[in-house]
């Protein structure tokens, strides 16, 4: 194998691919990336057996062939030679020779035949979506997904079509985020549950891409294809809870508040909250009073009076301040609306006048 | 089952010798034999990556090892299957962190959108007693031969809260487990008719989709069929779907709170079709079954009350399993609050409060309602007339006073114009027998009862 290509192109792809490699595998080939030539393109492939990615970049190819090399090693090499423009790689007997204008590097490779294949999806449903829409949808809900693997179906993001929107949902069973993105493409009959670790990779890969993404879904696997990238992930073969049933339809107390005010208050309050990030809301519409208080017996306590418009019944309720804070970064509007539903019922937070994003969080009990 | 596990363990043992340790542990972790079908071994793998790799790289090795161990193996296929990752220990740890937050009530919402089944309903926690053993036996027969058995359609009826939905959903879940290729669908008659009405509104294309949707299932389960009464067009549609499925030997299961013959305004042709297969009823559970149910439910909730409490509950609460469950939940809640087991004397008032209030109505008021229903002067009831239009309401009044309000025969006779207690006894017997033969009388009595 012998080819020449642009260093920046190669570096960008290798760094993305390297992230996917499995660093702790007992099988050394899994922490390597595969370089292979095909006509006038170079194929870069990596997988951790959960996600598989494949990039294609243009290259000048003298002889065809393939090699697997350690992902972290080659990406570090490329980072360390930032001044070089062109890079030539040749392979003889599984030894990879990297030549630039001023540098000669030799790297030991692995037999490419041992490199795992990446599943290609041929059947199943397909639809196209713009990368910025996909990423916006996923990022809006990502923080609510559960981190642990105990319940795989909720340490995931659930994507499904509902009427004229694509809905993204994530929950860790204490809070839930739902984002709707306008969608008018092909109809999708079944939703898909993608593990959170895998969807983060998908987001990172497509952040640098502008072409539309073609999604393919089967019961066990999804794939996303654009002009130069192919990424495939395992999906969770489970049932996503029918969360719509817990979205409250009405509310007992409603508060509209400037987002920046709330952010500042929360920042202050969380300094004094305990390990559960406990903060207390006291809302008294009759007296036109809305307070956020925190108390920590070791540090001290705060009480903030907020300027809000409010209606409904008075309420005193505890929340996890971090949960509230998380969603404020997602809301674009200047004002947020918080709807309480009484003791021990989830509260709903939305941007004022924006129905596309809904955030649900459970109060703390004591 | 064990046969498959053993075979795979032996195969893995052989493979382990041939492959490098790293290769073996990477590619054969979480694999198993799902089933053997005419010499074709179906191996379950955790994901597509492993499937591809086993197929392309290790297929020959795996096949050879399997052949060495079992002569009749002809081929190997790989499918991706769900891996069970149950780590209860970590679950406890996580719970401990979050003790102060209550979870969103998502637990009961894991219904599968594709087939409408709730995986919570299984036969594992289905308690069989004499009250439901017939329906259970019928469901087991269905599981052996889906579609092509004499129990098609299966019609299960019984009062509310006796486990009909549990049973039919469990059949669906079990069929799904044993026959992954069969398409199962569970719906309620209400959803079915909404679906139908929607498709009517959206033109012929939507109608065609609706018609096709229900026709391609191998097992159709429809719950609460009694709500179809008076919905003529929905009934007609169900009739056509029924015929289509039945002729193609697809299994159909219905449930209802009444025998099909007593569902009002149900078309005769549907009734006769429901009766074509097997009609079974679920009775109210008797004492021993109630005891078993309570024990199972308590165990399920990790609550272990003293035996005497369970026995007391089982003996004092009759009928409905759902009410039993409710009472048990109440007791669990109370004892969690007090952080100790409740005593029998604490439970007694609790049961008294939650059990239905006893109907206390004056005989006169009851008679008045019945007279209004039949549109006759109240005074006629107390007179000595034997006119037919008076006789019938009077007999029904006696019947209801006796059956529902537990008033003694002599008192009834005395209150209704000074009649002999034998007259009352005769009337009650007569109505009891007539109800069995006369559908319209049955409906009338039901309607009157609903007014109290």
Q: What is the tally of helical segments of chain B?
A: 20
Helical stretch count of chain A?
Answer: 6
Largest sheet of chain A: 9 strands, antiparallel
How much of the sequence lies in strands of chain A comes to 35-45%
Provide mean pLDDT of chain B, rounded: 82
Provide the helix percentage of chain A: 10-25%
How are the strands of the largest sheet of chain A arranged? Answer: 14-11-12-13-26-25-24-18-22
Strand order of the largest sheet of chain B: 5-6-7-4-8
Number of strands of chain B: 8
CATH topology of the largest domain in chain A: DNA Polymerase III, Chain A, domain 2
Question: What's this entry about, in short?
Answer:
The complex is a heterodimer of chains A (366) and B (452). With 366 residues, chain A is α+β, with helices and mostly antiparallel strands.
Sum up the structure in keywords:
heterodimer; A: 366 residues; alpha+beta; DNA Polymerase III, Chain A, domain 2; 3 domains; nine-stranded antiparallel β-sheet; eight-stranded antiparallel β-sheet; B: 452 residues; alpha/beta; GMP Synthetase, Chain A, domain 3; Rossmann fold; Helicase, Ruva Protein, domain 3; 4 domains; five-stranded parallel β-sheet; three-stranded mixed β-sheet; 20 helices; elongated; DnaA_dom (chain B); cytoplasm (chain B)
């Amino acid at each position: 194998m012998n080819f020449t290509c642009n260093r920046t192109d190669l570096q960008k792809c290798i760094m993305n691919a390297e992230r996917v490699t499995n660093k702790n595998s007992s099988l050394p080939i899994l922490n390597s990336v595969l370089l292979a030539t095909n006509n006038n393109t170079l194929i870069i492939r990596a997988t951790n057996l959960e996600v598989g990615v494949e990039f294609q970049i243009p290259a000048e190819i003298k002889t065809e062939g393939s090699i697997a090399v350690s992902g972290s090693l080659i990406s570090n090499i490329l980072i360390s030679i930032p001044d070089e423009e062109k890079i030539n790689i040749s392979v003889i007997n599984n030894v990879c020779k990297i030549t630039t204008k001023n540098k000669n590097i030799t790297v030991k490779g692995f037999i490419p035949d041992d490199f795992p294949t990446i599943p290609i999806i041929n059947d199943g449903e397909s639809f196209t979506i713009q990368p910025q829409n996909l990423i916006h949808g996923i990022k809006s809900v990502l923080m609510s997904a559960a981190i642990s693997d105990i319940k795989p179906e909720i340490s995931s993001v659930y994507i499904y079509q509902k009427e004229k929107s694509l809905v993204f949902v994530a929950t860790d069973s204490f809070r839930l985020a739902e984002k709707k993105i306008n969608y008018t493409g092909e109809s999708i009959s079944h939703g898909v549950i993608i593990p959170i670790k895998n969807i983060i990779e998908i987001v990172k890969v497509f952040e640098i891409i502008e072409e539309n993404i073609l999604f393919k879904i089967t019961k066990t696997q999804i794939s996303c294809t654009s002009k130069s990238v192919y990424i495939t992930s395992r999906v969770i073969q489970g049932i996503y809870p029918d969360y719509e049933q817990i979205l409250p339809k009405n509310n007992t107390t409603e508060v509209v508040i400037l987002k920046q005010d709330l952010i500042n208050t929360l920042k202050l309050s969380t300094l004094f909250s305990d390990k559960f990030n406990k903060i207390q809301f006291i809302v008294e519409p009759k007296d036109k009073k809305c307070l956020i208080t925190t108390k920590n017996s070791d540090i001290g306590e705060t009480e903030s009076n907020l300027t809000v418009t409010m209606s409904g019944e008075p309420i005193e309720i505890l929340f996890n301040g971090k949960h509230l804070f998380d969603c404020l970064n997602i809301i674009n509007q200047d004002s947020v609306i918080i709807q309480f539903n009484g003791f021990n019922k989830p509260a709903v937070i939305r941007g004022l006048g924006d129905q596309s994003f809904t955030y649900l969080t459970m109060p703390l009990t004591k | 089952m064990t046969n498959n596990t053993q075979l795979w363990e032996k195969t893995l043992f052989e493979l382990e010798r041939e492959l490098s340790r790293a290769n073996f542990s990477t590619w054969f972790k979480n694999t198993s034999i799902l089933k053997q079908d005419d010499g074709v071994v179906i191996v379950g793998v955790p994901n597509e990556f492993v499937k591809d790799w086993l197929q392309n790289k290790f297929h020959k090795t795996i096949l050879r090892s399997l052949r060495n161990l079992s002569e009749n193996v002809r081929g190997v296929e790989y499918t991706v299957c769900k891996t069970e990752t149950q780590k209860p220990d970590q679950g406890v740890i996580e719970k401990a962190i979050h003790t102060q937050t209550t979870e969103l009530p998502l637990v009961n919402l894991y219904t599968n959108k594709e087939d409408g089944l709730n995986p919570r309903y299984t036969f594992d926690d289905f308690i069989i007693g004499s009250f439901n053993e017939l329906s259970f036996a019928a469901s087991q027969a269905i599981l052996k031969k889906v579609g092509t058995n004499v129990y098609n359609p299966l019609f299960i009826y019984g009062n509310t809260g006796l486990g009909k939905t549990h049973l039919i959903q469990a059949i669906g879940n079990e069929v799904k487990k044993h026959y992954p290729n069969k398409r199962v669908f569970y719906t309620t008659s209400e959803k079915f008719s909404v679906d139908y009405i929607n498709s009517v509104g959206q033109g012929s294309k939507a109608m065609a989709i609706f018609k096709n949707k229900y026709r391609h299932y191998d097992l159709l389960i429809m719950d609460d069929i009694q709500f179809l009464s008076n919905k003529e067009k929905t009934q007609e549609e169900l009739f056509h779907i029924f015929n289509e499925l039945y002729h193609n030997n697809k299994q159909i299961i219905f449930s209802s709170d009444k025998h099909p013959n007593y569902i009002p305004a149900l078309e005769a042709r549907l009734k006769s079709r429901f009766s074509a297969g097997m009609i079974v009823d679920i009775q109210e559970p008797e004492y021993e079954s109630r005891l078993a149910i309570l024990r199972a439910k308590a165990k399920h909730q990790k609550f272990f009350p003293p035996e005497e409490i369970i026995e007391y509950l089982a003996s004092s609460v009759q009928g409905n399993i759902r009410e039993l469950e409710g009472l048990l939940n109440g007791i669990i809640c109370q004892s969690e609050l007090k952080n100790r087991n409740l005593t029998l004397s604490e439970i007694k008032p609790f049961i008294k409060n939650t059990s239905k209030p006893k109907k206390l109505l004056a005989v006169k008021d009851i008679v008045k309602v019945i007279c209004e229903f039949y549109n006759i002067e109240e005074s006629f009831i107390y007179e000595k007339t034997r006119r037919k239009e008076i006789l019938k309401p009077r007999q029904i009044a006696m019947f209801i006073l006796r059956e529902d309000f537990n008033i003694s025969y002599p008192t009834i006779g005395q209150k209704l114009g000074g009649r002999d207690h034998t007259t009352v006894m005769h009337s009650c017997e007569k109505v009891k027998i007539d109800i069995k033969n006369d559908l319209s009388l049955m409906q009338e009595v039901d309607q009157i009862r609903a007014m109290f």
